[in-house]
Target: Beta-galactosidase
Amino acid sequence: MVPLLITLSLACVFSSTSSDPLPTNYEYYTSGGISSGLSADQPYFTLNGKNFSIYSGAMHYFRVPRAYWRDRMKKMRAAGLNTLETYVAWNLHEPYSGVYDFGDGGSEMEDFLHIQELLKTAQEEDLFVILRPGPYICAEYNYGGFPAWLLREGAGFRTNEATYMKYVKRYFDKLLSVINDYQFTKGGSIIAFQIENEYGYAAYKDWVPERPYLEGLQQLYIDNDVVELLLTSDSPTVEGDAGTLPGVFQATNLGTDPEEQFNKILKRQPNKPLLAMEFWVGWFDFWADVHHTTPPDTVRDVLERILKFPASFNLYMFIGGTNWGFTNGASLGADTFNNSVFIPVTTSYDYDSVLTEAGDYTDKYFVVKELLQQYSTIPTNTPEVPNLAPKEPYRYIKVQKRLSFSDIVDKNAPYVINSPNLLPMELLDINNNSGQSVGYIVYRKENVDLPVSTVLKIEGHVCDTALVLVNGVLISPVLESKDDFNGFGYWRLENSTITLLTGEGLSNATVDIVVEEWGRMNGGNIYQYNKTFKGLWQELLQVMFTLTMKKISDWKIIPLEFKKNWTNNLEGWTDKTTNEGTALFYAALEIPTEPRDTFIDMRKWNKGLVIVNGFPIGKYLFLGPQQTLYIPAPFLRKGTNDIVIFEHFEAADEVSFASKQIWSAVNDGK
Ligand SMILES: *[C@@H]1O[C@H](CO)[C@@H](O)[C@H](O)[C@H]1NC(C)=O
Ligand SMILES: *[C@@H]1O[C@H](CO)[C@@H](O)[C@H](O)[C@H]1NC(C)=O
Ligand SMILES: *[C@@H]1O[C@H](CO)[C@@H](O)[C@H](O)[C@H]1NC(C)=O
Ligand SMILES: *[C@@H]1O[C@H](CO)[C@@H](O)[C@H](O)[C@H]1NC(C)=O
Ligand SMILES: *[C@@H]1O[C@H](CO)[C@@H](O)[C@H](O)[C@H]1NC(C)=O
Ligand SMILES: *[C@@H]1O[C@H](CO)[C@@H](O)[C@H](O)[C@H]1NC(C)=O
Ligand SMILES: *[C@@H]1O[C@H](CO)[C@@H](O)[C@H](O)[C@H]1NC(C)=O
Model:
């Protein structure tokens, strides 16, 4: 094997030498040494003094398996792009207050967090990098990238408020020290940093975005020896200069009408280059809503107009990827705190982007490649388009085991917190006093006598969905249509009730209220960020049995975070004799050969969470539009793979697999 490889690589060298190869981007832009980085001091960009157009694609490393980063980058470079853009997710890198993870740091997402490796791999694949560390990133990501433990601190988000800035500074000092050496002028790949994110959009009623906050962030970069270009990005046609800083390069975000945006920017920022920091080539999806698509011809039209203007761009997204586990965000309606308009984002962040969620080529890929071949003026070497990884629709498997809800709690409770009052998940004193950020929270009341017709009343709103069980038996109605979101067990109702028993009364019963965190707001108004606790918490909130109208106190609170070590060590599984939820279900996927990418098809299930070999890959909901969940090959192994499903309502007898994502119109009615 080894001699053969050497022969092959020699042959490569000879053939490429004889055809006088074009330089790589790094050869072209760093030959003769590096004396300057990305500059916007003239009507066009220069990099190290040479004319440069930013042809960038967005790939959020936390939405793509680490084992596939290089593959996605090769595809990016082969399309003719020269730059990779990514946000940096604070909530992942500082999962608990003061506890950091930049790869293998012990957190649940540790494998995604090797940011130095990402920056190095990009350079190896001949891509420059634009970094957008926020700290607020929106990105349809959980809490817009904020760690949920910030809710414990009474911080004033996205402002210069002292507590907030104290934590931002602590995190930025850490992050920027980790990536400092990866700046372009120090021999690395990062050519620019974005300050905040669409801060102009944060304007709300009489609240105006605070320039001192942006200045504070700018100062953190300066203090941490960041020397590359700083920029801000907003849509100037909407927000004018609300999110900008004097002297800091302003980019724009757009989906259509590039000329309108660019001309507006040129008015306030003449003699500068233009950059569409986000050119939206697709869009994200919400649960129980339509799947959004943008035709390739629209992308061709707008991209060509951007190139002709001429302007630089970042394709948002080049590859959208996946909101693994509990990482999806949600939209929240504008008026103060109004749960009525909570809308969670789907697990898939496919975005109808240039590559699919699973890294496959779309028509848009070839549109981009063709246009860049036509418009690119700097002759650098564009590698061949890589082959695709085969997908495997594995044969369906039977569900073998079930773990009842009672046994989940009785035999596996990771903590039981006794509390006189209801507490939101973030205020539990667990995880090094950082609270619970993800998963479900169980409010258990034991030893209650329930006369017949007892009604359970929850004052305020639940955040976000609630299941009620009496002695381990689900009382909540099975979700059947989107309209059910207006009823008991969902966020919209203020003050909701459910009848616990119709037949006979019960004495010494156990009542569980299981509340799901379905996604923290990723965008909303400035007053909402420090109020979006999850669980049962609202100011007036009480839970009571209305037959006696007695407020219930003295709860047992059990957080269910679905940490890998917990899921892999669950006790109490039995042979499955019923499909009744709320429960965990187990199926074994045997893979005799090297695993391949696949999609688990959840159309026969109702609502819940899928966990593969201990890692929660995401949520599902029969209402759509997403009907399958992407399982990348690196999450599977040769041999037995553990598929564990937390189903709220009603399981199916089997799970099946598909070779691609299945979208539906809103599947309203079962
Ligand atoms: C750089 O681009 C500008 C604007 O297109 C052009 O005027 C200038 O000649 C270019 N410089 C080089 C060295 O190509
Ligand atoms: C707990 O948090 C503190 C900072 O708040 C940190 O120094 C310490 O390492 C953390 N401990 C663990 C076990 O994570
Ligand atoms: C939320 O933040 C605002 C500042 O934006 C502050 O005035 C307010 O006290 C904070 N509220 C809480 C509950 O921390
Ligand atoms: C909350 O939003 C819904 C839907 O927009 C609206 O009908 C309702 O009146 C709002 N409630 C409050 C208290 O603002
Ligand atoms: C909900 O209950 C609280 C407390 O009893 C009450 O103040 C509030 O007006 C009720 N809201 C609605 C919409 O009925
Ligand atoms: C109530 O039920 C629990 C088990 O859930 C049991 O341990 C306890 O002895 C019962 N108490 C009474 C008074 O029946
Ligand atoms: C993993 O779980 C097992 C069994 O519950 C426990 O003994 C072990 O300490 C846990 N390990 C870690 C790293 O949490």
Remarks:
- The chain has 13 helices and 34 strands.
- The chain has three domains: 25-34+45-322+358-375, 397-401+565-658, 415-560.
